[in-house]
Amino acid sequence: MKKIFLPFLIYLAFISESSLMQALLPQENNMEWQFIPRFSMVMILFIAMYLNSTYGLVYGLGFGLLTDLLYTDIIGVYLFSMAATAYITSVFSRYLFGNLIVTLLLSIVGVSILEFFVYGLNSLIGISNQMIDMFLYKRLLPTLILNGFFAILIYYPYVKQLNLLKDTLKEN
Amino acid sequence: MPHFFSNKRLIILLVSIIILVALIGFSMKKRESLTLPEQFLKDSAGLAQTIFYKPANTIAGFFENLAEMKQLYKENQMLKARLDEYAKLYVQYEEVKKTNQTLKAQLDKEEDLTDFKVREATVIGRSPDQWNQFIYINKGEKDGIKPKMAVISPQGFIGKVTNVSLFQSTVQLISDNDRTNRFSAIVQGERNIFGTIEGYDPKRQALLFKKIPVDAKIKKGQKVITSGLGDVFPPNLLIGEVIDIEPDEVGLTQTAYLKPSADLYDLDHVMVLEREMPAVDESLKEKEEE
User: Fold this and answer.
1) Which residues have CB under 8 Å from A94's CB, separation 6+?
2) Could you tell me the pTM of the whole model?
3) Do residues B210 and B225 make contact, with C-beta atoms less than 8 angstroms apart?
4) B128 touches chain A (CB under 8 A)
5) CB-nearest partner of A15 from B19, B49, B199
6) Does domain B182-260 have CATH number 2.40.10.350?
7) What is the secondary structure of B146-158 as a DSSP string?
8) What are the CA-CA distances from residue B271 to residues B40, B120, B149 (Å)?
9) Would residue A51 count as lying in a domain?
10) What does the record list as GO biological process (chain A) (predicted)?
């Protein structure tokens, strides 16, 4: 039960991304800003920060593959980007003390790394034709705000769960 | 940072980049059907999405209603004005329909290229990153949906079915920038002008209608519809309206910008069309039997 709890939680966040997009987009379009939910990525970043880098990498690979299969047409873009982002964030977190502000900062850095990876790869393949200034202003900024709020929202309950999990991992 | 780039990690990084390129290359060619594990993943995600979309839609709908309330009076006035127009058009439509029926009866022609079967579906989700423009609908293989069927909203043509699993299917919108996402279309007018819809310009929020001959004269406000050439989509589905025309980079063709007639961002209920065409060999068989 305990073993599937964490993946299940992230899966819920993952599914809610597409539902939220479907519900949110009509209003969003009026403002011409792109709020992209990256909830599963934020949750994986927390794992990379509070458990260890291997867990982050594995979850990044798993949910990256899931994102590729379900939400896109091309396999590999998210698989690579999410795993790499989780790993880079876990390396950063070794040098920083984990409190709310640092966690929020690292989540924002992580989400922007992911966005840059995906933007770069998609531009390379020819899926995205957005200019870099539009990408920075209309997409990256709102996305970081949305996911920052999400990180603050889940911080206390989620970190508590992760610390519990860490203790049980140590016991084993 | 010595931790970051030790020899072993560098090799792992390089290998993973090679795998990445190989995977992208593998998945860029179009596949007709999904593998079984993919279907299973999509179905289970579809189930979860069905549970999620109801509350999400209700909450979003509440805010939308609040926004709409402000414009209600204005809209009502406009609609009243349009009502008279509608009555006139309806009479005309009935007349034309009747004539068409009698003419068809005279010709002894029952099947038509423009006939299609309609299946209603609900949108249960949307691709969260805006690079890919996919929506997910709650009808799949068991409801008879097949890849490449055309999908419309009440306002007009929105895209085609790409992947089908048992209980849900994926629809690629016309605004998706994929290389293979192209449609043959015509500008309605005295003479039909042909071209193809190739992607979307996010800056102008318009569809790109390319490969129009240089000498073709197109005015702003003209309607663009699907051509029905190629046996996939039914003809005469409204795609959009011309808002601007420009010569191509090389000057050999023209590019028009289209405002999509359907709101591609606000899709709740869509219809999947299956073209009903008499298969050639079947009609031949019948004749032989006679």
Assistant:
1) none
2) 0.80
3) no
4) yes
5) B49
6) yes
7) -TT-EEEETTEEE
8) 24, 5, 10
9) yes
10) regulation of cell shape
